[in-house]
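Worked example (supplementary).
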Amino acid sequence: MSWGESRTITLTVNGTSYTREVEVRFHLADVLRHELGLTGTHLGCEHGVCGACTVLINGRSARSCLMLAVQADGAEITTIEGIADIDGPHAGGLHPLQEAFREFHGLQCGFCTPGMLTTLIELLRDNPAPTEEEVRIAISGNLCRCTGYQGIVDAALATAKNLREATAPA
Amino acid sequence: MNEIRSISAKQVGRDVPRLESRQKVTGRAEYTHNITLPGMLYAKLCRSTVAHGRILSIDVSAARDLPGVHAVYTGETIRTLIAEPYFGPAFHDQPILAIGKVHFVGEPIAVVLAADPYVAAEAAQMIVAEYEELPAVFDEVEAMTSAAIVHETLKPAGTFADLKHLSGKSNTNVALDYQLRRGDTDAAFAAAEHVFEHEFHTQQVMHTPLEPMVSIAEPGDNCLTIYTASQSPSFVCTEIARLFGWRENQVRVKVPYLGGGFGAKLYIKLEALVAAAAMLARRPVKLSLTMEEQFYTITKHASTFRIKSAVNKDGRITARRCEIFWNGGAFADIGPRVTQKSGFTSPGPYDIDNVSVDSYALYTNRPPAGALRGFGIPQLVWAYESHTDLLARGIGMDAVEFRRRNLLREGRPQATGTLMHDAAIIEVLDKTAELMNWTAPFERGEGVIRRGRAIAIGFKAVVAPTTSGAIVNLSADGSAALYMSTVDMGQGSDTAMAQIVAETLGLVAERVKVVHPDTDVTPYDMATLGSRSTFHMGNAVKLASLHALEQLGAMAREVGLPEGTNYEIRDIFLKKYGMQAGNIIGVGSYVPPYTSPQKGTGLSDNVTPFWMVGAAGVELSVDTETGHVTIDRLINVADVGRPLNPAIVATQLSGAAMMQLGFTLFENMDLDHGQVTNASLADYKIPGMHDLPTVMDNVIVDNNQQNGPYGAKGVGETATFGVSPAIANAIEDAVGVRLTSLPLTPESVLRGIRALRGEKLEG
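After joint prediction of all chains, the assembly is encoded as:
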């Protein structure tokens, strides 16, 4: 059933362009998850606190539960499903940050992981050599109930180091 | 890369990356959160606005008339389907939807179904209920004698022998009165050199799994399939079958990955409601709670613990009396088991000849309480380790030395009389003291910043007796699949169990497939709770693997391969079947030996198959102008037996400690006449990155759990034990303020500092 005004919007999500008629009340997270089937973006608290639903909109991290889909009309969006392709293709098929999350056990239940990854992708792009304190600040708006955060910080720092070494002039 | 046989590499004790980690970092892992079914309706609940009241009327007409609403059901509608729609693991006290009266603010009274969840939510707001309010009781100690009675008649489920005497009892809020008596406490107190008595309190808190509770029921022809974020698929199956008067094989329960559990998703929660709604509507029904609604569904027991000890002139504890009151809220859930199973450890990991324990499960008009990472143990350790520090101070003895003098040693009887085995209590204490550099001078701060340090140690008996079953399917190519009902809710059980299969069968753990819980497919398991899976399911998985190995050996002999031949598994199958065909099914089932405690005394010569031991060492700074506490260093030391996967063990320790840090310093459900006033993550803060201690170390001691699979035992709860009392003890060490109620907020610290100085807090 339709409940009110709809508009046609175009989103570029992980490099693919989608044009959809969406109700204006729909959150971006609803459209990503239900209209586009990109269920990797998770909804935890649904009011912008936990950060699980964080996606990149034109390169900036944003809560997809607090944003209406129509506000994202014309935007380029990256979700967890698109992270492996950033600066890719990568050996093994995963972005180095994803590999580091596996290696350093930066996840347990995995529910906060989409928000942690997108937020850290933004950090590492803007600040390729973050201090531990800068990593902590960057993800201080993302909650994890499982890990105690240590593995997440370790994964981010290791990724930064690896990426710097990979791009350093010989 | 794809080699499945492991010739030499150890599979157990290796840091195998989590089997599902690739799915989780790419957004492909399956959660109930993500499941939609054709024709599915979304359910939204209307909840009670009063803490205790008779339902006079529920007007659902406006909701029913809203376009897009498929149906609205109340408790009376449910009764047309199920005559006695009450469920619960210990008591059948929880109605699927309220019938006759409501017991707490937030109790579901009606459900709306619609194809659009927003329509269902809108309609649920249009339901109007009228109540005759009844006197309510919220405090666990008051509930002992209150005139307000939460349930008119007690209805024990019949599962637990020690609850049977409560059947049909009325005019009481006591849902279990557990007793333990050993030695002669009266005589010991009369003869004591020193007697100390204190009372401690814990607050009501919530699990907050980031994936809120969610269940889906899909009706079939006289059968149901339930997809649910549950820690106990086998129990859901049994309980739904009981409610409908069905055979268990008419109910299929499937569980994918969970976005956290911590005890919130145990036993039966939303499953009864979606099952009933789906059968009434003849459509699949999904109910996803919001984060807010979780606060009205299951929580951790608030508690009051009165503890009294006798100490002789040598610093030995000669007697201890424990009185614990557990605030179970409106429905018993598993509270009576918390009351007993944790109750018998309430004297602590100490060797005390004369012990008396009274532990009471109480009904109140608060949101229900159940299991939360420790099954009551953190509440107990909080009290007895705060008390223990006060004893050491009271007699002027060093806190570590006092504990060392009193701790239980190998072969000594615990309060129940069960002899301690494989519990590295002294080793955990010594390791903590060593890492704290306990005997070295300590920097105490200057100016407004004062520093303190302390330790605390606790233990837990794993819940017993419980059963786990497992199946290992060895395919003709030599690959293995494990079928089990242990739920991977983040703790890493898929990976750890695959390592046991791989170790036993000589395979590579990364290539073992783990089939997720599906009661049509995977065998019975009691539940994923209380740090029981590594030991119980681990033993079952090892037995199933050995059973497969035994059959493989028989097959090799049958096809004429001599004993000890180094043939590949696939070659044995090939010889037997002439082609890549056939399989071997290994089955294993494990239930440890157990002796039921004697009624009245609580004594047992075998009360548990294993003990978990955890300690915390804390160094902290207190800002004496604000009361703010900074945790400079938190050391978590645990006895986990031999770790199956050290890296996963470390994350379990750090995660448990951080969770307990939140319960210690700030988490608190604010209640106003039974109404939770901070039921959202915006108002109920859980630990974030900035709450991580400056330094946190997670350390295990070397130990072997002899009856555990490859020497392993449970780990998920262990690092919660010592955190709260270690912090309270360190605050006293820093500023001389003794806090006896959690959480240890800056306000309570500052009030304590001002009181010590004889200063008024205001103006």
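Two points are worth noting when inspecting this output. The mean pLDDT of chain B is 96. Chain B touches chain A through 60 residues (CB under 8 Å).
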